[in-house]
Structures are given as structure tokens and as C-alpha cells.
Amino acid sequence: MSLTIEQFIERMNQIIPRFIRKVHVRQSAIFIKGDLSIPQFLVLELIGNAGRIKMCEVAAEMRISRPAVTGIVDRLAKLDLLTRLPSEADRRVIFIQLTKRGQALIQKVRSQRAEVIKVGFSALSPDERETYVSILEKVTGILTGG
Length: 146
Description:
This protein has helices at 5-26, 29-33, 38-50, 55-62, 66-78, 100-121, 126-143; strands at 53-54, 82-86, 94-98.
């Protein structure tokens, strides 16, 4: 059966919110307890992937203003999840990186996410999983302009 783009959109509008809710429910209690917002966690994960990153790069990657990044970083620093490091070459530049506590939190959430992925996708064949990942990578590339 071949879907028109309108039929595809309708099905995606039904599936995506359910999928996100199910994954979110299985994710870490940090979101449920309100310790971290989703944007704060996304910033933490970005920093975790980069290792060390400039504040302005976080703003560009997250597509949020520099003052918004400053607010998020302030809160995460107060929670001892990341630290600021001034650049030795240019004191106007501030790098941020995860603390040990931040690294542990990222690892905990990634482990929980891995379990959700395992439960959700283990019933699919290896070929179906490969197809899913390929399509997701392609759509992500289109949406990010790459």
C-alpha cells in the first residue's frame, strides 16, 4: 500500500506523540521529578558528546539565544552537572564541560534509553532495524540541512 504525503502526515501525527510519550515514561525519573527540563538535558547531552564546547556553539547548535544558554548553564552549574572553563587564548571565550556528576547522569539516561530501544526494537528483524536507522538518519540530515 502506497501512502500519499497527506496520509503519511496523518499517521505520523498520530504515531509520533504516542511514541515520544512511551519513551519519555520509560526515561529517567529526573524528568518526572522536575530536576531537569528537556532543554537542560539536551544541552547536557550536547556537551557530553562534544567533551568541551564553547557557550556560543551550544547556542548555535541548540538554536537558542546566548542569554538562554547562559540561564541553562547557570542552573546546570548550580546542580554541579557542568563547569565553565575560561579559554587560555581568549578570555572572552568560555568553554563548558561536564563534571563527574554530569557524566554519571548522562550515562544513566543513556543506559535507560538503550533499554527502551532494546525493548522497542528487538522484535524487529535486523533488516527492519537497518531500514529504520537509515531512514531516520536521512530525515535527520534533511532537517538539519546536511
